[in-house]
Amino acid sequence: MGRAVYPIGILISTTGSYGTVGRSILNGTLLACREINDDPASTITLVPQHSNPAGDLSAYSPATKTMLDQGIRHIVGCYTSSSRKEVIPLFEKHDALLWHPAHYEGFESSSNVIYTGAAPNHHMSPLMDFLLDTYGKKTLCVGSNYIWGWESIRVLREYISPRGGQVMAERYIAVGETDLAQVIDMIFEEEPDFVFNALIGSSSYAFFEQFRRACIARGIDQSVRFPIASCNLTEPDLSEVAEDCRDGHISSSVYFASLPSCENRWFVAAHEREFPDGPPPSAEGEAAYIATKFLGAALQAIGSDDALAARAAVAGLKMQAPQGLVTIDPETHHAYLTPRIGRSDRAGQFEILAEAAGPVRPDPYLVSVEAPAPRMHGRPTLRIVS
Fold it and tell me: Do residues 113 and 307 touch, judged by C-beta distance below 8 A?
């Protein structure tokens, strides 16, 4: 009996202002497809079809509709929250599934989306606790002028205020804008304890470089006096930042390529063999790899590509991923993931400073961290990594 052949879509911008991270997502998906197709025990063959909206929000819906009209029922993709929200109505209309492989700001749980990236209690609340405990109570926030920037800064403000924290100012920059001089001047004027960065793509890369060099010109050790913390800084992002400006930045994530596990060493080696020209493995690339592996497992379990049946089949599934054990929560269709805090180095990798003891249940609406309280399932306790 021959294998069943299923086309799957990959909807991700591999050019444009956040194209480097997009290529990491594409590579993670392709690597998982290759492994599924090469597995002699597999009963399916996945045929990936990539569409590149090139960072143009208006191109996402037409690209999605084209794939759905071709009979594709499962699409891995969307890095930005604005692109995800743009296409969800199409998935709902066509009874299809979007497998979303990126961290996001939360406050969403669509029945037509499987979320394998970090929910806010995996990357936002752990980072905020770490920053308040390590650096101080005062922050200045800068973000890209769209949903991710607005919402992540709103969550930070509402989280730290009852804990004695203060947002001294917040500024929003158009996606792709690289003139950050006004924001940098404001940081020097306000003198926050740390800077919260919710910029994406080329705007973020420019900020790291311009701020570091402005600090050097003033005789300031930027990473000590004005540490920059992000929930979305990854290895592919660091590869786009000048080497002398890469180190000392704080990132909250569920995956870093420097993890020492056997599964991760195998994943990184396979990734480098398949994609020697990069970009390097990242949290988004790993989330795409996980999403595609779960998709493959669901299709094999149900013997078809029916989206509603696949959604039911994936609920509760587990896998030993590069980051550790990952489970799809049947209630929210988000993933149990392990929060970690890392600090970047000049080589473009991360030293892991703290991590949770194990996978944490997703809490996309942050219902368990609305006010200071004993740490519950949705608010992980991080241990310091020596």
Answer: no
